[in-house]
Amino acid sequence: MKKITLTLLAVITGLFLTSQVFAWGPGAGKGFGPCRGAALEQLNLTDNQKTKIENLQDEHFKATKPLQEKIFDKSVELQRLWLQANPDKNKITAAQKELRGLRDQMEDKATALRLNINSVLTPEQKEKLANSGWGRGHGFGPRGAMRHHGESGPAYGAGMGPGLGMGMCQ
């Protein structure tokens, strides 16, 4: 019975600790899918602008993929630390700190992407985008808690899915 309880606890803890990493996923593919660029689709982008933005998103995905993998690995490590018979406070704290650092890097890259996309747009497109609610999707709020601003649908962070994204869906 103890073995079953421990196994069940390990599975539940694993799902809890890694759910956000899995939620980011590899993205919706190339182009402005139904959610990927809902706000951008309303801007009447030129073909040149679409190409530039797609290239920025592709570069962002390639740059963040190793970070996503590190976040996953660190989450699994943290899970294993918690499942030890006598969890080591110092090791857990260090792993959590490293995980926060990796997530900060992801957020910094998402911000850079958003600024780069913004630089491709005309002043009129920027104003229309600002009024569309771009950037008000899911994200990490105070103390790492997930928040959701009800006016937006699922966020898209150029390949990251919910969390840390730009919240471009309406």
The rough form would be described as elongated
Q: What is the total tally of β strands?
A: 2
Enumerate the strands of the largest sheet in spatial order, edge to edge or round the barrel: 1-2
- Here the CATH topology equals Four Helix Bundle (Hemerythrin (Met), subunit A)
Work out the helix count.
5
CATH architecture: Up-down Bundle
Mean pLDDT: 73
Order of helices and strands: HHHHHEE
How many domains? The number is 1
Low-confidence segments, ≥5 residues, pLDDT <50?
21-36, 138-170
Class by alpha and beta content: mainly alpha
State Rg. Answer: 19 Å
Distance separating the two termini: 48 Å
Structure in a nutshell:
By secondary structure, this protein is mainly α. It has 5 helices and 2 strands, in the order αααααββ.
Give the helices and strands, then pairings:
Blueprint lengths: L1 H23 L13 H4 L5 H37 L5 H32 L2 H9 L7 E2 L5 E2 L23
Antiparallel strand pairs: 1-2
Helix pairs in contact: 1-3, 3-4
Report on the structure:
This protein is an all-alpha fold and 170 residues long. It has a single domain, classed as Up-down Bundle (Four Helix Bundle (Hemerythrin (Met), subunit A)). The chain has helices spanning 2-24, 38-41, 47-83, 89-120, 123-131; strands at 139-140, 146-147. β1 (139-140) and β2 form a beta hairpin. α1 packs antiparallel against α3 and α3 (47-83) runs antiparallel to α4. The chain is elongated and about 65 Å long. The termini are far apart.
